[in-house]
Structures are given as structure tokens and as C-alpha cells.
Amino acid sequence: MKPTQIATSPEIERRLFLTSQRVRMQALQMAAHAKLGHPGGDLSAADVLVALYFAVLKIDPENPRWPDRDRFILSKGHGAAAYYATLAGRGFIPLAQLKTYMDPLSMLNGHPDRNKVPGVEANTGPLGHGLPIAVGAALAARMKKEAWRVFVLTGDGELQEGSNWEAVMTAQQYGLDNLTVIVDRNRIQQGDFTENTIRMEPLTERFAAFGCAVEEVDGHSIGALLECFARLPLERGKPSCVIARTVKGKGVSFAENQPAWHHGVPTKEQLAKAAEELGVEVEW
User: Fold this and answer.
1) Most buried residue, 127, 204, 235, 252, by CB count within 10 Å?
2) What structural domains and CATH numbers belong to the chain?
3) Please, are residues 110 and 36 in contact by the beta-carbon 8 Å criterion?
4) First-to-last CA distance in the chain?
């Protein structure tokens, strides 16, 4: 696999930062509308999603099933609100659809459904499934001698599922350097901090021991993310693992580093405060 050419500049980074702030606000509004959701993880993953969809992935919103597209799989399917907001911003679905989040018969379920949402590659939600699917997709590209790449975003608490490590062993066995695993390392899972549940560290060394080329990056720095993604694969003949150091509830003071905001429904007053802190308008 050859490294990817990614256009970047302070102006591009600023534009993508503003886009991720809008994604955060939209995700909060969606949770408020549905009175359900996982906004803490939506806020932590927004910068990674925006960097991928607006600067890295080879995709075509006009042709979501374009055979030569890169594949992205949201293994942490509970981060669907930020994912949908990103897809809407990129043109895969109408922006107005966000206002139907989790409504009866809406295309936007609480977890992404490839049969309903253009741009979604795999139904996810049960944790530990997305990375094995991504490994299968990367292996399929290798067998078919196709150039498209596979990216998968996992949660850190999700890595407590053993199926992930079986998948990583398979990826290294076949030298799948067309696969990039991105870990949303926000250190909080449902109910508590990850290290109080099952310790994840030393996470970098663990992925390296399983045969990955690993790099840690500030998951809220658009510039750092783009610089890292431009060097993929990190090492020829090995799957890449990017550990994105993030903050649960990023950008919103009442949600940052608060386990209760793994789930959480913002009030009207909290939405107004979030809009002020994120620097965007309340759209709904």
C-alpha cells in the first residue's frame, strides 16, 4: 500500500475543526430530540470522523456503493449520532433527516443500519463485531487485488471483547496493511472509567505485540490526525493501529470526563450552554 496524499493547511484544519464542532452540536440535539443516545462518545469521536470523511476516505456521496471506495466501519455503533451528522455534512443523507433520529420508521436508528443509511458499510452495535468485519473486508480487497482501504473506529471499552484480538491476530497473519484500526481512547465506558473496569494499558504495547504498527495521536487535533493518516500504512506488511487520545464529552464542560454522559440527555438549557462553548448556533 502506498501512503495517501492528503491536502492540509491551517485554513483546511480550521474548516474541519468548525465542521467537527457542528457535528458535536448536532449529536447533542439528536440526543435531546430522541431523549436517548450516547453523546459522550459522539463528542469524543467527532474529530476522527470529520478528518476521515472530509479529507482522507476515497468515497463518493453520489455513488455510495462505488466499488473502488474506501470502506469505513463504525464498530462503536452507539456513536451513531455523530456518524449520521458526519454523513449528512458530507452529503450522503439529507440534513433534515437528523431531526428524525430514533423516531418510529426513521432511517436513523440508534445504531447504524446499512440497509437504511447510504454510506454505512455494516450494521454495528453489538461490541466486538466491527473490527472482525473490517478484517474480512481488508482480506477481501487483498484477495481481489483491489486498492481500496478499510478503516474501523472502535471504542476503548469495546476492546475488552476477545473477538477484537482474534481479528487483529488474523490481520497480522495476512499482513493486511490496507487495514487501519482507530481506537477512540476516551478512557470511559458505560458506567465507569475503563481502568476501573478492565485495565487497557499499556494499549500501544498490546497492539504492537499482536503484530500491528501502532501510533498514538491527539484525537482532537485535526492537523495531527491528518499527518498520521497521510503516512498510512504506518509500516508495510502490517495492519496500522492509531490510538486517538480523546476526551469523553469533548468540548462541553458539563459532559467532559463524566461517565454519566456515556448516556445522557441534554436539557434545553444545557443545549444553549453547549452551543456557546462549541461556538455554533442551536439549529433546532
Assistant:
1) 252
2) 10-278 (3.40.50.970)
3) yes
4) 44
